[in-house]
Design brief:
The structure is a homodimer.
Chain A: E1 13-19, E2 23-30, E3 33-41, H1 48-65, E4 73-80, E5 83-85, E6 90-92, H2 106-113, E7 119-123, H3 124-135, E8 144-149, E9 153-159, E10 162-164, H4 194-197, H5 199-211, H6 218-224, H7 232-240, H8 244-268, E11 272-276, H9 277-295, E12 306-309, H10 316-324
Parallel strand pairs in A: 1-4, 4-7, 8-11, 11-12
Antiparallel strand pairs in A: 1-2, 2-3, 5-6, 8-9, 9-10
Helix pairs in contact in A: 1-2, 3-10, 5-8, 6-7, 7-9, 8-9
Amino acid sequence: MTAAEPGHSTVPVIAGVDLGGTKIQAVVLRNEEVVGSARVLTPQTGDPGDVIDAIVETIRTSLEAARATEPDLGGIGIGTPGEVDAKAGAVLLAANVPGFSERVELGRLVSSQLGNANVTVGNDVNVGVLGEYERGAGRPYENLLGVWSGTGVGGGLIIEGQLYDGRGAAGEFGHLVVKPGGLHCSCGRRGCVEAYAGRVSMERRARQLVKRGQKTDLFHIMEKHERTRLSSGVFARALEQGDKMAKKLIAEAAWALGIGMASAQNLLDLEAIIVGGGLGDRLGQPFVDQIVEQMTPHLFAQEPPVVLGTELRDLSGAVGAAVLAGG
Amino acid sequence: MTAAEPGHSTVPVIAGVDLGGTKIQAVVLRNEEVVGSARVLTPQTGDPGDVIDAIVETIRTSLEAARATEPDLGGIGIGTPGEVDAKAGAVLLAANVPGFSERVELGRLVSSQLGNANVTVGNDVNVGVLGEYERGAGRPYENLLGVWSGTGVGGGLIIEGQLYDGRGAAGEFGHLVVKPGGLHCSCGRRGCVEAYAGRVSMERRARQLVKRGQKTDLFHIMEKHERTRLSSGVFARALEQGDKMAKKLIAEAAWALGIGMASAQNLLDLEAIIVGGGLGDRLGQPFVDQIVEQMTPHLFAQEPPVVLGTELRDLSGAVGAAVLAGG
């Protein structure tokens, strides 16, 4: 850290970034409070350099919003999809982020543009769950599972107050098997939670059902709102309009999430399960209630877990990334 | 601890007891080595006092075998089925142990007959897994799941080198849901691992298949060996004889265990999974291989867990109980 300049606060700030395939969300924390934030769309050029530049710019905008400058930066945390090489601060195979299908030295590249600040890189879902555990709905609990339902379905575990990552690949809640031989999953297997509760799978299934002659307003709503995908918002609007196919797909998602959560609960006897991700955040409490209804009949122990939506909503990831960096 | 008497070793011994519905196994450890053991059949009178007396006698016989006396006893550990009140050293609802269907002050009652030695009470499967972790097949690993397939199917978790019990009810691997709406389980639900891989469920299913006209030597072998239940040994002998129904039931058990283990692995990214319990120990490596074959196609991460049989075999529980008591 550089010495404080005249007129500057001596309290360092920590930046947190949630890198997604669609958007980049940054926050700046001072004394554990969000004092600035910014969001941009993820560049779709396919050049990883453009994504790095966008991350750096979003951090700079957040710093301005926080009335802080680069020398105040005590560290940066980044949550990213794909496989994370935490030691090197690199990411591999983040297929959803344009240009990130191969290894990207994320930490080093961002650091070099921001005064060589320390950059810590973590898995996007893990940092989201960490954010909720440290600063959100998970604060009262020491053992919890975060279930992030969005494009795919991810998970993150806090065990005895610590992020639990196994050998680096724990938390793949989306690939718990809920129906052997069931629907095809994007992982190439069948019957995973994600095959029923990930938006990519749900959209594929909706297109199949339309081909078979079933009616839905889902794609009409998608086009009306100038989307190219069945986003969480599209599903939410279709549900509001009473669209039958949307209802059916969301009910199936809740069923798969409920079965998977019951299995996880019977194995881990958790205090809490937090439902987040795009779909979880957008559909909110009614969706949580639907999942709980499916989960409860399969619980073995008498004491059920508390099941909650997120508190930080779409800032879980960015706040958690900042927490990872010491914020 | 009392002062050493002349001619006695000053090294204390620790007793461990595995209390089951059929048998009571005790061991005595000195310097972490098994130096004495004894086994008796569990009294079937329905009087809990008879079971307590049998536990005490079995410990005494083990002490004699270890050339130790009661004053040498540094502690006693007991693994029991049912719900454990660890603080009070009591057990509730151990329906399989005659007379133990209500609360039994197991620790206090055993202690009072053995010089008021400290008694620690734990869940039978958890202590079995602890035994394998500390002194058996699990020694090289810090994150592992024990899957105990016997009368029912239990599980125990070691997370970061510690027995993980959640709020007291973790490890119910037998009640992971592997086929929603599938076979009835003894817990009253459907499609649990135990509905396919617990001996009680497997026997019920065998009787149903016989009623439907299917042929098997299972019950013939059972009677020939003067058993009243389809024990693990009966299944093993039927398999050796190529009995089709036994093959089918064991294949279904391996399937359910494999699906459940894949889900647990995808969630926890464990280093190892240990397969124990009566069925696991009796059927050994061929059964482990069958389970691995079912599990592997559902694994998400590249690095699979090591899957092993137990090393202490039917002493896992008693040794683990002694470990729990400091042995």
